[in-house]
Amino acid sequence: MRGIVVPDRQEDFAADPVELFFDLAFVFAFSQLVGLLIHDPTWGGVGRQALLFGLLWLPWTQFTWSANAISGNGRPVRILFLLATAISIPMAAAVGTALDHGGTVFAVSLSIILALALGMMTLSLERDSSEFASAWKYTIPNIVTMVILIAGSFVDGDGRIVLWMVAFGVVLVGTVFAGRGDWIIRPGHFAERHALILIVALGEVIVAIGIPVVRALEEGPGVPGSTVAALVAAGAFAGLLWWAYFDRPQPALEHYAEGLPAAGRGRFVRDVYTYAHAPLVAGIVLSAAALEEITLHPTDPLPLAFRMMLFGGLALGVVGVASSIARTFGVIAKERVVAMGILLTLTLVSGSWDGVVLLIAVDVAILAALVVEHLRIERPSATSRFRAPRAADKS
Questions:
Q1: Distances (CA, A) of 317 to 33, 168, 250, 312, 339
Q2: What is the pTM assigned to this prediction?
Q3: Which residues make up the CATH 1.20.1410 domain(s) of the chain?
Q4: What percent of the residues of the chain are helix, what percent strand, and what percent coil, each to the nearest 5?
């Protein structure tokens, strides 16, 4: 294990344990976002937390790309990940005050993590390779973003929000142009890393629904039956979200990427993982805020703001999965789109329903959509659509 080893281009590998350790700091960050959403359930509040989530996604996804290009179990790489993990703790702690007095801590720590990830990628590649040229070109907009982020942290109010939106936009444009470059892509590693961050987000759902149990036990012996029912419904909700991604889309996307020619993998991974998985993770975080409110007050009508969070979180999840399926196989996830129409109707007509009743109805709608989707896809005439691409296929 001397130095940073670059495996063969065709060699894939699993995520190193240090990468999952790095992800754990994002549980802390996501919990901060959920807390902010609960205390500010307004359109403005959701917009501000969406910006913070987008900024948090930058260092996480960059470390995924960097670890994908080099050997994840090299000691230098592990040291960089551990450094980034340590720095990510103050970053996560500052999420709650990032748009107030904690902006500098948030921006500086996030920028350092991003710089470590970029350094890991560029320092490990051969200087005369096309991959190094692509990585260096992509580093430039990231440097600009870091400068704007830190500068924006010294500006108060809406000015900071505007500057941070510009900073995020600079990187986003950079990813568009980066799609034209050459990259080392190992599909199995990308699939596993994004599966892990989804597990992390679902873990935040478990944390959110567990809070009422703790409070109930603190207030007196036993847990009310309504709270138990809400917890079971919330647990079923999390399980259905897990199944909706891991049962079919996750292995299908990975299998397809493995069959793509090397020239098309970079754009495919950018579109399906870096882009499409961001709203999927954000949707889980958004719905977690609604679940916490339901489990805290299961027999009360759920306020419209939290009903919209529940629907919005599911809608973002459908956008993430459906866009991935459309980009990969050229088909529409019909049942999931129809389910969103049903869920929107439930959101609008359930103003007087107990929160737990609404959650059970949502669970039933999601389950029905998944069952119908399964029956349709398992028909012999449909299985031919979900195949690995031939070498001649284009991304």
A1: 17, 21, 13, 9, 12
A2: 0.89
A3: 187-383
A4: 75, 0, 20
Euclidean distance between the first and the last CA atom of the chain, given in angstroms as a whole number: 36
Residue 259's nearest CA partner among 388, 97, 362 is: 388
- Residue among 319, 317, 292 nearest 303 (CA): 292
Q: Which residues partner with 301 through β-bridges?
A: 354
How far is 373 from 375, CA to CA, in rounded Å?
6
pLDDT confidence tier of residue 164, bands split at 50, 70 and 90: very high
Place of tokens 């007095």: 101
Phi-psi region of 2 (alpha: psi -120 to 50; beta: other; left: phi over 0): beta
Which tens digits make up the pLDDT trace of 253-273? Answer: 999 998 888 778 889 999 999
- The secondary structure of residue 42, as a DSSP letter, is S
Reported as a single tens digit per residue, the pLDDT across 47-62 is 999 999 999 999 999 9
Mean pLDDT of 225-239: 91
CA distance 25 to 129: 34
State the residue for tokens 């993998």: 265
Exposed / middle / buried, residue 15 (Cβ in 10 Å: 0-12, 13-18, 19+):
buried
Distance (Å, whole) CA 189 – CA 8:
14
CA distance 90 to 237: 31
Q: How far apart are CA 352 and CA 300, in angstroms?
A: 8
The answer to whether the beta carbons of residues 392 and 263 sit under 8 Å apart is no
157 Rama class: left (phi>0) / alpha (psi -120 to 50) / beta:
left
In this structure, what DSSP letter does residue 273 have? I
Neighbours of 102 (CB within 10 A): 17
| pLDDT number for residue 16 | 83
Query: Could you tell me which CATH number the domain at 187-383 has?
Result: 1.20.1410
Q: Specify the range with the lowest mean pLDDT, choosing from 54-63, 220-229, 231-240, 255-264.
A: 220-229
